[in-house]
Design brief:
With about 425 residues, the chain is of the alpha/beta class. The protein has 15 helices and 20 strands.
C-alpha cells in the first residue's frame, strides 16, 4: 500500500504519527498546500522514531483544490490509496483526483450539503455526500473503492452501529450518535478561554446547517429541523458526566440508512450554551459565510471569506493540546429489542488529552479522529476489508475493526479499548 495523505493539519499530522508505529504500508506521502507543514510532520516522525521509520515518509506540496494536482502527485508516487485529511470543501477535487489516478480513496467527511431553497428546516436540499454517491457507479465499474466518512464521527460511530445491528439487537428503533466532552482550554494565566478543539470552519458548517434526521416512516425518509433543536441531557462515561446535546447535521444520518435497518437515525452533539451562543452570533453577523466579500485594506480592496477570517482569528486546534485538559467521548446510543425484550446500549470510545499528548504529542480530539482511518487502511491493506464503489464504514464487517482497535500492542493491535454500557429501557 502506498498512501497519499492530503493535509498535514491537526488530523493529517495525527494520522501520520499514528501510522508511524504500524508497518502495513510501503510509503506515505504527506502533502499540504504549505509544504512546511508536511515537512514538520515528517521531521517529528524522524525525531521520535528514527531514520528507518522516517524513510517511509515523504513530504510534498499539493493543491487540494485542484483535481489535476492531486492526480499528478498520486501518479508520481504510484499511490494506491488517497487519504483525504483536509476541510470537506475540498472533497470533490480530491475525490475526483484520486479517481483520475486510479487510486482508492478514504475520507473522514463527505461532500458538502446545501439547504432546500424554500423549506430549509423541513426538507433536505443537496445532502452530505450526494456528489460522491452520484458517482458510485463509475467507481464500482472501475473496480475502485471510495470509503467515505471513515473518521470518528462519522466512522467509528458507524462501525458501532453495524456491530449493534448485527450482534446486539433483533430490531432497532434508533441509531443515535451522541458526542460529548469535558474539555477545557486555558491561557497562560490559567483562565478558561474559548478555543474550539476541532476545525471551526467545519464546526460552523455542521452546526449552522439544518440538521438532518432519518425516519423510516417519513414520506421522504430524510427531513430537516432547525439548528440546535430537541436538546437532551446525555450522561457520558469515564467521568465526563451529563452534557446537553442538540441536533447537528452529520454524515452518519445520511450513511447508516443506506446499509442498516433502523426506524430512526440521529446525531446529537454536546456543544454547550456558550458555544451555541457564539455560533448564533456568527450567523447573525454573517461571519459564517463562505462567499468572499470585498474588504478595504491599506493595499487596496481585497476579497476574503468571512468564515476563513474567523478561522484565522482563532487558535489552530492542533496547537491546543498543552493548554487542554479533559476527555472526549464518541459513541452510538442504540434502542430496540433483543429476544423480545426492550434494550438500550451505548457503545463508546473515550480519548484522554493527557494520554494522547504524552504518547503522540496530539490533542485528543484530532487524535481520536485520526485513529480510525489508520485502522481502516490497515484492514484494506491486508484485504480483511475489500469492495468497490462508494461505501460507508457500515458496509463492512465491524468485528475485525473493533478487535484490531482493542487488541494489545503486543498482539498487533492499537490498544484502544471501547466500551459497551447497558442502559435501562424507558
Amino acid at each position: 500500500m502506498r498512501i497519499l495523505l492530503v493535509g498535514a493539519g491537526g488530523v493529517g499530522d495525527a494520522i501520520a504519527r499514528i501510522a508511524a508505529r504500524r508497518d502495513f504500508y510501503e510509503l506515505i506521502v504527506v502533502s499540504d498546500y504549505d509544504a512546511g507543514r508536511a515537512e514538520r510532520t515528517v521531521a517529528w516522525i524522524a525525531d521520535r522514531h528514527g531514520s528507518t521509520v522516517a524513510a517511509r515518509f515523504i513530504a510534498a506540496q499539493i493543491d487540494a483544490g485542484d483535481a489535476a494536482s492531486v492526480a499528478a502527485l498520486a501518479r508520481d508516487h504510484q499511490i494506491t490509496h488517497v487519504m483525504n485529511a483536509v476541510e470537506p470543501k475540498f472533497v470533490p477535487t480530491i475525490f475526483d483526483g484520486a479517481f483520475a489516478a486510479k487510486a482508492h480513496y478514504v475520507d473522514m467527511a463527505m461532500s458538502l450539503s446545501a439547504p432546500h431553497p424554500d423549506e430549509p428546516y423541513a426538507k433536505t436540499g443537496i445532502k452530505l455526500g450526494d456528489y460522491q454517491f452520484e458517482k458510485a457507479g463509475e467507481w464500482e465499474t472501475a473496480g475502485l473503492l471510495a470509503l467515505v466518512g471513515m473518521g470518528v464521527e462519522p466512522g467509528l460511530s458507524d462501525i458501532f452501529a453495524r456491530y449493534a445491528c448485527d450482534h446486539l439487537f433483533d430490531t432497532v428503533d434508533e441509531l443515535g450518535t451522541r458526542d460529548g466532552a469535558n474539555l477545557v482550554v486555558r491561557d497562560s494565566d490559567g483562565n478558561e478561554i474559548f478555543a474550539p478543539s476541532f476545525s471551526i470552519w467545519t464546526t460552523i458548517e455542521e452546526c449552522l446547517n439544518p440538521p438532518v434526521i432519518y425516519d423510516k416512516d417519513h414520506a421522504e425518509g430524510w427531513f430537516t429541523t432547525p439548528p440546535f433543536s430537541e436538546p437532551e441531557v446525555f450522561d457520558f462515561p469515564d467521568g465526563i458526566g451529563p452534557v446537553e446535546c442538540v441536533h447537528v447535521e452529520h454524515e452518519e444520518v445520511l450513511l447508516m440508512p443506506r446499509w442498516l435497518d433502523a426506524k430512526r437515525v440521529t446525531f446529537k452533539y454536546g456543544l454547550g450554551a456558550e458555544f451555541i451562543g457564539i455560533l448564533q452570533t456568527l450567523h447573525l453577523l454573517k461571519l459564517d459565510a463562505v462567499q468572499p466579500i470585498r474588504v478595504r485594506s491599506p493595499k487596496g480592496p481585497v476579497e476574503v471569506s468571512p468564515r476563513d477570517v474567523v478561522a484565522a482569528a482563532l487558535p489552530d486546534p492542533a496547537t491546543l493540546g498543552p493548554q487542554m485538559t479533559g476527555k472526549t467521548c464518541a459513541g452510538m446510543w442504540v434502542t430496540g429489542t433483543k429476544d423480545g425484550q426492550a434494550r438500550q446500549v451505548y457503545l463508546y470510545h473515550v480519548s484522554d488529552n493527557e494520554w494522547t499528548m504524552t504518547e503522540y504529542g496530539c490533542q485528543c480530539v484530532v487524535w481520536q479522529t485520526a485513529l480510525n482511518p489508520v485502522i481502516a487502511l490497515e484492514l484494506l491493506a491486508d484485504e480483511t476489508w475489500s469492495g468497490a464503489g462508494v461505501l460507508g464504514p457500515e458496509a463492512f464487517d465491524s468485528v475485525p475493526f473493533l478487535d484490531l482497535m482493542k487488541a494489545d500492542l503486543s498482539a498487533g493491535g492499537y490498544d484502544q479499548p471501547w466500551g459497551l454500557r447497558e442502559e435501562i429501557p424507558t
